[in-house]
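Exercise: predict the fold of this chain.
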Amino acid sequence: MDGNTRGQTPRQPNGARETQILTLLQHAGGALTPGEVVERLQAELTYSTVVTILTRMHGKGMLHRSPRGRAYAYAPVTDDAGFAARRMRSVLDDRPDREAVLARFADELSDADADLLRQMLGDTDGGGTDGADHGTDR
């Protein structure tokens, strides 16, 4: 078994590799080609593995890509907060009762987060934390 794994890093779930590459791209200051990603990962992954991961991430809408020479250069479509917001929206989209999910989410916010959310939504009167405003019976 050692002969087949020489020079390879231990297997990681694809999500962990995507996270590693996404973090690298977010801190790169610009788009990177697969070769530049491999270089910055210090040969942790092979070129073909990086190309596969970048292509899949692009297909998922996580990365922009643009031609650079004979390769593509990849950059994240948003920052870390944007990806968190996309995950939250995806969870919401997957549930049949959006109103109930939003109401439960709002009920579980800390007072500080509820105030921040109200401020961001333009509700400056501070009302609505007692649960009465979270749902309507239709």
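Check your answer against the key: DSSP finds seven helices and two strands in the chain.
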